[in-house]
From TrEMBL:
One of its GO terms (biological process) is flower development. This is NDX1 homeobox protein. It comes from the Eukaryota. InterPro entries: NDX (IPR039325), Ndx_N (IPR057287). It comes from Trifolium medium.
C-alpha cells in the first residue's frame, strides 16, 4: 500500500516497457500477475476495479541530514556515551485521494499487461512473440495461492474461467479510466491480450 507500492510499480513499468528487460520481466513477474488475475472475482474487483480501496495507509517522506544522522549513530553507539541524544528529522506528509490512488494503481497494473504483451517486430526478438501469453497459460496450471496470502481463490471454478472473467472486468474498468489515468493504446493492448488468451485456452 501507499506511495512505496506505487513507486515500485512505476519502476516495474519502466523495465517492462524496455525491450532489453521485457523477457526478464515476463519470466520473473508473470507468476504474480497470473496469481492476481486468478483471485476470486469479488477480491479482484475490490482490489483492482474499484475507486475505493478497503484499506489505506498514511505516507510521509522522511527528511534528514545524512551527515548528522551518521554522526548521531556513531555518537550513540560509542561505549563512552551515558546519555543518548535525539536525532532531529522532519516528516512531510504525502497525500492523495483514495480514488485517485486506486486509479493510479490500476492504471499501472494495466500497463504491465500492455507492455509485456506488446511485440514490435523491428525491436523485439522473435522468441518474445506470444511469450507473455504462453507464460500466463503455463502459470494458470500452477498453484499460485501461496503468492498472495490473505486473499481468496475460487477453487470450484476453473482457473481459466476465473482469469477470463477478471480480465474482462479489468478491461471494462480500464475503459472508464480513459483518458485521465489510462491511454487508449494500453487499453487496446489489454483487449488484444485478453482475446488472445481466450483463443489459446480453447
Amino acid at each position: 500500500m501507499g506511495f512505496v507500492q506505487l513507486n515500485a510499480m512505476r519502476l516495474a513499468d519502466i523495465f517492462s516497457d524496455d525491450s532489453n528487460f521485457r523477457s526478464y520481466m515476463i519470466l520473473c513477474f508473470t507468476e504474480v500477475l497470473t496469481a492476481i488475475i486468478s483471485l476470486s472475482h469479488g477480491d479482484f474487483l475490490s482490489c483492482w476495479c474499484s475507486s475505493n480501496l478497503s484499506e489505506t495507509e498514511e505516507d510521509a517522506s522522511l527528511e534528514y541530514d545524512i551527515f548528522a544522522a551518521v554522526g548521531w549513530v556513531l555518537h550513540n553507539t560509542s561505549p563512552d556515551v551515558k546519555d543518548a541524544t535525539n536525532l532531529e528529522f522532519n516528516l512531510t506528509r504525502n497525500s492523495m485521494l483514495k480514488a485517485s490512488y486506486a486509479h493510479h494503481r490500476t492504471s499501472l497494473f494495466i500497463k504491465f499487461f500492455a507492455n509485456l504483451h506488446c511485440f514490435v517486430p523491428n525491436v523485439c526478438e522473435e522468441q518474445e512473440r506470444n511469450l507473455f501469453v504462453l507464460k500466463v497459460l503455463e502459470c494458470l496450471q500452477m498453484d499460485l495461492s501461496n503468492l498472495l496470502p490473505g486473499f481468496s481463490f475460487d477453487s470450484d471454478a476453473p482457473k481459466f474461467a476465473t482469469a477470463s472473467k477478471n480480465l474482462r472486468s479489468l478491461l471494462s474498468h480500464a475503459e472508464s479510466l480513459i483518458p485521465n489515468f489510462v491511454n487508449v493504446e494500453d487499453v487496446q493492448l489489454l483487449r488484444i491480450s485478453i482475446f488472445k488468451d481466450n483463443d489459446e485456452m480453447k
